[in-house]
């Protein structure tokens, strides 16, 4: 991606918050950090998180489709039954240790 240094900056829309919340936000600012820097950082982190979530979901759906085409998957009922059996065994072992 190329960055054009002559590109103008833009602003995010202002948001209304309760005065108490503003005090709370200002209370967690790092030394020398402005409220604007904090908000920009939070927005950037949220954008990155959502991009990562979308990519994770995309990869998961692709993996599901690949498994369906290959016919190599394990039925959910089988997996759940195995997990329930492990859980029951762990609970039994824990109960026996307590005795």
Architecture blueprint of SSEs:
Layout: H1 19-27, H2 35-70, H3 76-98
Average residue-wise pLDDT:
93
Output the structural class: mainly alpha
Element string (H = helix, E = strand): HHH
Percent range of helical residues: 55-70%
What oligomeric state do these chains adopt?
single chain
> Total strand count, please?
0
Number of helical stretches of at least 4 residues: 3
Low-confidence segments? none
Strand content: under 5%
User: Whole-number radius of gyration?
Assistant: 25 Å
Terminus-to-terminus distance: 64 Å
Q: Note the overall shape.
A: flat
Q: What about the largest sheet?
A: none
Textual characterization of the structure:
By secondary structure, this protein is mostly helical. 69% of the residues lie in helices and 0% in strands. It has three helices and no strands. The longest helix has 36 residues, at 35-70.
